[in-house]
Amino acid sequence: MRRFFTIAFFVFVVLLFIFSLRWINDKNSYSFFVAGHLYGGTSGNSVHIHPPFKAVFPFIGSQPGMAFGVFTGDLVRKSEPENFDTLVSELSKLRLPYYIAPGNHDVGNRALYESYFGEKERDNKTYSSFTHENDLFILLDANLNNWSITGEQLIFLEENLAQFADKSRNIFVFVHQLIWWGDDNEFKNITMNWPPYTPDSTNYWTTIEPLLASTKKPVYLFAGDLGANHIATPFMYFKKGNISYIAGGMGQKIDDNFVIVEVDEDGSVNLELVALQGDKDRFGDLEGYQLPAE
Predict the structure, then answer these.
(1) 3-state secondary structure at position 150
(2) How many beta carbons lie within 10 A of that of residue 223, not counting itself?
(3) Which of 6, 54, 77, 209 sits in a 20 to 30 Å window from 150, CA-based?
């Protein structure tokens, strides 16, 4: 009988150990979502979040380990109090923390946007950073200097990378505009929501890309200025070196989309492109996307 209890106790300890490891691993895995162009299509005058996206709030909340959301700009059609009040009210139904990389529509009235979403402890700055489970998150405001990241914001980016990159598993960077786009590079056939709005050049390839590449860590760079009308490319993915370029958005009412990012306990990242019309997984593997040819 004593031998039976000894074996039973040993089995209990082993099972407890296995359960503890599984609990620790589950605790260190998490997911978050990334969504761009929340106000929807470029035509119309609605002050509400794009209805197909609001409809998936319960689906988002049901995802394993869902920790927060990141919005990649153009959350409101016009930078006005009514729009921001409606936005805040509707986003409260998500019951999740969220972070914003502002779009040009959001900062049409910059002082007003800052009063709602600026970081109060940093003089209402509209760019920010945080860490989560040994991953670094950086949100940029490319509206400050015509799609280029310069001045105090560039110093902020450099300081965050210097302080946190070495000890981070992954680096996630968010911006509204496709600051990597150029009419003479591999992204030239990606059509944004409003092509005339695109500047002749940015400092991405001369300054920002070398910074991100020098970290030698997996970098995921998200933008949200696609998919808002019928001329726009609905989404894109491209990996170059250690940097993965991801962009999407909503408003077409045909191929509206957002991304769920799953980070496993070992730091590996899975990108799930979710369709807002039809089957949620109908787009297939985002990482299999091919840039449009001539």
Answers:
(1) coil
(2) 29
(3) 77
Sign of CA dihedral 134, 281, 286, 37: negative
> Distance between CA 223 and CA 175 in Å, rounded?
5
Amino acid at 117: F
Q: Please tell me which of 11-15, 23-27, 265-269 the model is most confident about, judged by mean pLDDT.
A: 265-269
Distance CA 88, CA 80 (A): 12
Largest CA distance in the chain: 83
For residues 273, 275, 279 and 285, what is the CA-based torsion angle, rounded to 10 degrees? -20
Enumerate the H helices of 62-166 as residue ranges.
Answer: 81-91, 110-117, 151-164
Burial of 191 (0-12, 13-18, 19+ CB in 10 A): middle
**Residues belonging to the chain:** 294
192-209 pLDDT, tens per residue? 999 999 999 999 999 999
* The pLDDT value given to residue 22: 42
Structural domains of the chain, with CATH: 31-288 (3.60.21.10)
Record the tokens describing residue 251, joined without a space. Answer: 């408003």
| Residue 293 amino acid letter | A
Residue-wise DSSP of 227-243: SSSTTS--EEEEEETTE
- 38 to 89, 172, 265: CA distances (angstroms): 14, 20, 30
Q: What is the 3-state secondary structure (H, E, C) of 255-291?
A: CCEEEEEEECCCCCEEEEEEECCCCCCCCCCHHHCCC
pTM strictly above 0.85 = yes
Query: What is the CB neighbour count within 10 angstroms for residue 31?
Result: 18
Other Cβ atoms closer than 10 A to 211: 17
pLDDT computed for residue 20 by the predictor = 41
- Residues β-bridged to residue 257: 275
Q: What is the pLDDT of residues 154-163, one digit of tens each?
A: 999 999 999 9
The residue with tokens 């609905």 is 234
